[in-house]
Amino acid sequence: MTEETWVAIAFWVLAAGLVASALAVVLLPRILHSALALVLAFVFVAGLYVILSAEFIAAVQVIVYVGAVTVLVLFAIMMTESSQVRGSNAPNRQAWLVAVVAAGLLALIVAVLSSATWNAGTRMPDTLAGTDIVAAIGRLMLSEFFVPFEVAAVLLLLAMIGAIVIARPD
Amino acid sequence: MTVTLDHYLFLSAAVFAIGLFGALSRRGLVAVLLSIELMLNAVNITFVAFSRYLDVPGSDQVATAGQLSGQVFALFVIAVAAAEAAVALAIILAVYRTRRTTNIEDVNTMKW
Fold first, then answer.
1. For the whole model, what pTM was predicted?
2. How confident is the model over B50-76, as pLDDT tens digits?
3. Angle at the Cα of A44 (from A42 to A45), degrees rounded to 5?
4. Which of A24, A57, B57, B89 could pair with A37 in a Cys bridge, judged by C-beta atoms 3.0 to 4.6 Å apart?
5. A169 and B9 in contact by Cβ < 8 A?
6. Interface membership of A2 toward B (CB under 8 Å)
């Protein structure tokens, strides 16, 4: 089989897994199970980044989301709710209305995407072949995206201080 | 059976819609946060997919900068999402400490 076929197989497996675990996040009755399904969804997204040849983003995804964010969420669940209780992730009264709204949004996006034409081919261009992507991203962050990079640094510092201040007992 | 840009965009739209459904229909504060993380991931998929498929004309250097912008944006989204998760979880802990609940319908002091 050609490389293209393998990429297609990998895409469909990852896509099916991602949609299934995303549905599990919003539908499972126990909040702890939702959090664990979210870990699975993050891993599938990292797999998608790999077949999009964005290995660095995939690594960051695994470290930040699968590692850090998940641990934060699990701590929050353990410290607040009786997470094993059935119905700790119950839907509210508007669930059916919300389902209609979400389906409508999906239909709208699909309709717009179907009629859109992009400055992009149906195949992946080979312009990235041979370039050191990590080094190129680093250069971009310190040249073209220098201001957003610094703002992000300040934002992370503020978020850290803010989280400590908000969560601290009086 | 080639995987095209549209495949990624449709997948991302599906995950975004699922996340929207979760964010609006769950009762727990943590569950809403999880759904928002799903939506942010869906957006990141589009960023990286566009950066991979976009055909930037010009020299190799320009092509690299143009093509990698999407990946850099995905990194910024991940950074903002991490900050958002930390602050949101601190707020959830503070709410739980004062009100002994994380049910969104019981947190209505500021509701008109």
1. 0.89
2. 888 876 665 455 556 667 888 899 999
3. 65
4. A24
5. no
6. no
